[in-house]
Design goal:
This protein is of the alpha+beta class. It has 2 domains: 15-104, Phosphorylase Kinase, domain 1 (2-Layer Sandwich); 117-297, Aminoglycoside 3'-phosphotransferase, Chain: A, domain 2, CATH 3.90.1200.10. It has helices at 15-25, 68-79, 117-132, 161-166, 168-173, 209-224, 226-239, 247-258, 266-271, 279-297, and strands at residues 30-37, 44-51, 55-62, 89-95, 98-104, 177-179, 188-191, 194-198, 205-207. The strands form 3 sheets. Strands 1-2-3-5-4 form a 5-stranded antiparallel β-sheet. The chain has a two-stranded antiparallel sheet with strand order 6-9. It has a two-stranded antiparallel ribbon with strand order 7-8. It is globular and about 65 Å long.
């Protein structure tokens, strides 16, 4: 959810969503422009400019059979803006043609090519720690991670899977926190060098902190290398209620979850300005991170 594409797309946004966005703004409001936003693997995301009064909102459209739109509407209702870090739900609907949500626009834009990567990783770490400190009573209604495919013991594969499964009891019994489920550099927004918001909440669940941490560390490794992954972890541990124990285990779980399909991330990185991360390069870096993490466990 980042840069706005300059070309007019061949298919327009869902008319009912446009009506809902305008009606929410006021009796005389109307949508005067809709621009497609790059990024994301399964949703079409639009920036809607509303006139009379002037405001901007975001529309996300999901294909038939994809529960993400319904999930995001439910999650955003529970989060209630999360102190400004998450969008608020404006309207949503689902039918046989798919689903959509209209949400508030957070300030800033996605940027995975920062001028100061160290600050970038630090902001990611401190923001995730803030999310994980959300009081559990406020999160009633969220699913458990282990009810999702991503949290299943059937998911791990590849060279790291055996060690992950050996530690499965530890994974199951680790304390639960608000888990974004896809916390990585493409799902945060920036105003200058300050992280201004977190988007794409359709997967949010209650799960162990290491699920998000390992995922974010791997993303930073793919983008910038091991040092920035460690900067992120140090920043997280500095302000977390409880510093992460055994980070290597959570790195291994991330490796085992992404062993199949890491090449599929190419379009997301390309849309956000990293065409150097080809399928071959992503697999090469995944293999290096796998071998590096396994070597630390021996």
């Amino acid at each position: 959810m980042s840069r706005i594409l300059p070309d007019v797309p061949p298919r327009s946004p869902e008319p009912a969503a446009l009506r809902a966005a305008a009606e929410n703004a006021g009796a005389r409001a109307y949508v005067e422009a809709a621009r497609l936003i790059a990024g994301g693997s399964h949703a079409r995301t639009w920036l809607l400019r509303i006139a009379n009064p002037a405001r901007e909102v975001v529309l996300r459209e999901f294909p038939p059979g994809d529960p993400a739109g319904t999930n995001e509407a439910r999650v955003l209702t529970i989060l209630d803006g999360l102190g400004g870090l998450a969008p608020r739900l404006i309207a949503n609907a689902a039918d046989e043609n798919g689903s959509w949500v209209v949400i508030t626009r957070l300030p800033g834009q996605a940027d995975i090519r920062p001028a100061d990567p160290h600050r970038f990783a630090t902001e990611l770490g401190t923001t995730l720690a803030r999310l994980h400190r959300t009081p559990l009573p406020a999160l009633s209604g969220l699913d458990s991670l282990h009810d999702r495919w991503g949290g299943s013991r059937r998911r791990p594969s590849g060279p790291a899977a055996g060690l992950v499964l050996e530690a499965w009891d530890q994974i199951l019994t680790t304390r639960r926190v608000l888990t974004h489920y896809d916390f990585q550099s493409g799902n945060v927004l920036w105003e200058g060098d300050t992280l201004s918001g977190v988007v794409d909440w359709e997967g949010a669940v209650l799960g162990p902190p290491g699920y998000d941490i390992g995922w974010a560390r791997f993303d930073l490794f793919l983008l910038y290398g091991e040092q920035l992954a460690d900067v992120f972890l140090n920043a997280y541990n500095t302000i977390a209620d409880i510093p992460l124990e055994d980070p290597g285990l959570w790195d291994l779980w991330t490796i085992a979850r992404s062993h199949v399909g890491v090449e599929d991330w190419v379009p997301n990185y390309h849309d956000l300005g990293r065409p150097d991360l080809t399928a071959t390069e992503l697999r090469r870096r995944h293999t290096w991170w796998t071998n590096r993490t396994l070597a630390k466990r021996r």
